[in-house]
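User: Could you check the structure of this?
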Amino acid sequence: MADCYSPVGVFDSGLGGLTVAREIIRQIPDERIVYFGDTARVPYGSKSKDTIIRYTDQILRFLDTQDVKAIVVACNTVSSYALEEVRDHVNVPIIGVVKPGARVAAATTVNRKIGILGTEGTVASGMYPRFIGELNPEIEVTQKACPLLCPLVEEGWWNNDVTFSVLHRYLEPIQASGADTLILGCTHYPLLRSAIREVMGEKVNLVNPAYETAIELRRLLTEKGLLYPESGENGKAEEKYRFFVSDDPERFCRFATSVLKFDIEKAEKVNIESF
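Assistant: Sure, the predicted structure tokens are below.
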């Protein structure tokens, strides 16, 4: 039976959700985390809704074996397509990354114009415009699918000339819309924050759903009485954080180390299709 000492489950289609895990570590440093990255079946952005729901159910069944107390869907595509469909499939609180980011964007835009960068799946789902419209129907939303950004991030080209060239092309319609707020609607994109800031300029507010989701998680755990008790001793990272993947754990560990800024020496490979 999960309690306040149980870990939080975090999952993503692959590597991008590590930015969410990073924010959880920063904002709620006492929490234990079990992270699953579906590295064998990435990307999810080009998959059908039915496939994404099936993958999500398998991952939820795996996380249930880890006795997690709450689950964070650290993937915009899954949050858009599958979260509401699978919410009743688990017995613990579950949150995604779309609504926390959308709420902050809607609350902070001054000229009521918001831009969204996302995967093809997230943009096609229309989840961000729909939810923002529910919050404030006067807000104008401009979306742009950016399929080249995730491979560039995973290649480590966070401030590369090629990346800047791609960003200039993708950001043109957002700039033309006059948006004063831009949602980084894929968990890979916070790793490009400085490059996006350089292209968009200082006057545009960049909303990082990873950060907002960590804040939402802290609120949820506190409300449910599940927040890990403050001890003053955070413990060793290898004891607090466990990582699982569906393929290529060595590559995952290298990338995770670059994102989390401490050595990730082990990720366990899981046959996720068996769940």
